[in-house]
Amino acid sequence: MRRTLTMAAATAALALVGGPLAVTEARSAPVLGRWSAVEAQAFWTPERMASAVPAPPDPDASPATEPSVDPAASPAVPAPSPSSGPAPAPAPVPAPTPTPSAASTVAAVKPGRAPDPAYAAAAAHPGAGRDFDGMPVVGRMFVMTGGGAYFCTASVVSSPGRDLVVSAAHCLLGADARQVAFVPHYRADKPQPYGLFPVLRDSAGRAKVWIDPRYRREGADRAATLDVAFAQVGPNASGALVEDVVGGNRLVTGASYAQPSVTLVGYPASAARPRLCVNRTTKFVSSDPKIPGSFQRIDCTGYPGGTSGGPFLTHFDTRSLTGDVIGVIGGWKTGGDTDDTSYSSYFGAEIRALYETAVASARVERATRATRTTRAG
């Protein structure tokens, strides 16, 4: 089965409602709308978060209902013409390209604290998933869509503005997605240990989420190699930026498909705590013409619905609890057709371009907010 629930099953399980907010790729001169951390916390109560189910894929999103992409806002991710073929499998770039050093992030673990023994246990038993207490840099992304409360896994990615998270595109694809918020280190017994970080809105009330336009147009199967989304989050109720609070993983693109040691983290819907596993990755080339392309693959047991968007981490540091993010659960069949093998779109030049687009637009957002604050003062 796919890594997400069907829309019919999920909608039948929930009957929550919310205000309008559409998800789109990127836009110019955004202005922060009314969706602060205080409002997000009031909406996403512990009960509502606990009721959320895995986000369903939306491969049939209609272009007629989607906001258009401003070409000036996303020059690095060109949209092919409607007559173009399937999204091509991304080719590796010559050498891995990292974001600025992870040393610039704030360590999530205090110096001198012993690492969680779960990490050593996971490394000693490759491929065996286990529940653990989680890590600050990874959490749940909550969203209201289709009349229900949903979630996926997401993680903080280092950026100049210290305010970006990465997840799978199919988690945030719905035309009516709204009330979107990221909760790092979520656990059922302690749902907001670092607060809640709302995904910002633009002047039209749409969430600041970047998805390659080909993924929205061609769908989750045909454009499976582009199943990645970046989102800009505002500060928590204390006014702190997410990366300053929990740290961030470096984005690395162009790495080898085959990695000797990758740490995989996700939030299964059926568990009160997140899931941890360490194993090697391999290259998977799809033989299904309806889902073309090459993907990263990892065998790790027990990653069902809810784990979509969970990071593939290399060079994981058990003290800072950060590493290099080279993938997220998604891509082929939105993450896989069994709970014990997960996939990711390959992080190559196209994902790097999408990230740079998000960084540039987020910079405009911060400048706009600063100007408004100065005028108000």
UniProtKB/TrEMBL annotation:
Q: Which UniProt keywords apply?
A: Signal
Signal peptide (from-to): 1-22
Q: What is this protein called?
A: V8-like Glu-specific endopeptidase
Q: What is the lineage of its organism?
A: Bacteria, Bacillati, Actinomycetota, Actinomycetes, Kitasatosporales
Instruction: List the residue ranges of the region (Disordered).
Output: 50-108
Q: What PROSITE patterns does the record point to?
A: TRYPSIN_HIS
Bias type Pro residues, positions? 77-99
Q: Which intervals carry biased composition (Low complexity)?
A: 61-76
Residue runs in coiled coils:
none
Organism the protein comes from: Streptomyces cirratus
User: SUPFAM superfamilies annotated for this entry?
Assistant: Trypsin-like serine proteases
Top-level taxon of origin: Bacteria
